[in-house]
Amino acid sequence: MNTRIFERRYLFTGTLALKTGLHIGSGWAVGTPSDSPIVRTPDDKPFIPGSSFKGAFRSTVEKLTPATGLKSCRLMAGQGCPGAQGEEQQAFNKKREKKKWSGEALLAQLEEKLCHTCKLFGSPYRASRIYFSDLLPPDEDDLASRMVQIRDGVAIDRDSEKAVDRLKYDYEVVAPAQTFQLQIFLEDPSPTDLALTSLGLVEFISGLAYLGGKRSRGLGNCQIQKPAMYCLDLATGNETERAERLCAYLLKKTPAEKMAPVEDVSGFLERQIKTLPIFNGENHAKATGE
Ligand SMILES: [Zn+2]
């Protein structure tokens, strides 16, 4: 169904440093000493599932998107986007069946109807254009498994706002200062996809973004450090140049050998953000297409 050709790939790497403790629950407390353990790798090191980071990154971008003159349904029904579960999705599915949309016709409809964040992060109709690897502690970090603390919580009665007797529980957190390796891929992004991704990256680089559970207790504040960016471009240049780039991409080892490094990352992100409608005097109401 997806007729796009692979032309451009961006890789963004960095170190995600915790500024506060982090709790991403594993949802599986059997056989562990804590009531609410965190997720761990098979060799007992804490890690951040790519899907958890994607969720936090998506909601960070979704919060900012309306202010930039673009549309985001924030995955809530009633915003006119069939990417969110609800009436619009049901209506879209009915119409799709009735009109027998497929291939190009379906893509054209999705291009028109999906909000900008559903186009970037994915919807039931079209895969995401952005991918997040699982975030692991650095390879040389042998102490990571010891960077887990147990904190006490008390259950609070919602009506009286008093602690409920004997309803104490504990939960694990990854200690502040633990770092994780970050890798984000963007596949054939539109200029809007690139600008919205840059928006999220800038929030995380500024240390203003949050991740994981128990945020009301101050957990989950994190920062992207040492940001680096690489680009594989198979769209421009002559055939020999494109073949050379593809060859290096397939056969070399490190990101810097495989793809062209972006020299000035913050300048690059700033240029993408400046293309957003709000900075170009474009009408908010008209800013639906790309
Ligand atoms: Zn949407």
Describe the structure.
The chain is an alpha+beta fold and 290 residues long. It folds into 2 domains: 8-72 and 115-286, no CATH class; 73-114, no CATH class. It is built from 8 helices and 8 strands, in the order E-H-H-H-H-E-E-E-E-H-E-E-H-H-E-H. The chain has helices spanning 50-64, 87-99, 103-113, 116-121, 191-205, 239-251, 255-258, 265-273; strands at residues 8-18, 130-132, 148-156, 163-174, 179-187, 209-210, 221-233, 260-261. Strands 1, 2, 5, 6, 7 and 8 form a 6-stranded antiparallel beta sheet that branches. It is globular and about 70 Å long. It starts with 7 loop residues before the first strand and ends in a 17-residue tail after the last helix. The model is unreliable at 285-290 (pLDDT under 50). The chain binds zinc ion. The site of zinc ion (ZN) has 8 residues, from helix 4.
Q: Give helix % range.
A: 25-40%
Report the β-strand fraction as a percent range.
Answer: 15-25%
Principal-axes shape call: globular
* Poorly predicted parts: 285-290
Helix-strand category: alpha+beta
Distance between the termini: 20 Å
Ligands, ions, cofactors = zinc ion
Query: How many whole angstroms does the radius of gyration measure?
Result: 22 Å
- Helices and strands, in order, run as EHHHHEEEEHEEHHEH
Number of strands: 8
Biggest β-sheet strands, sense, barrel: 6 strands, antiparallel
The average pLDDT score comes to 90
Number of domains: 2
Query: What is the number of helices?
Result: 8
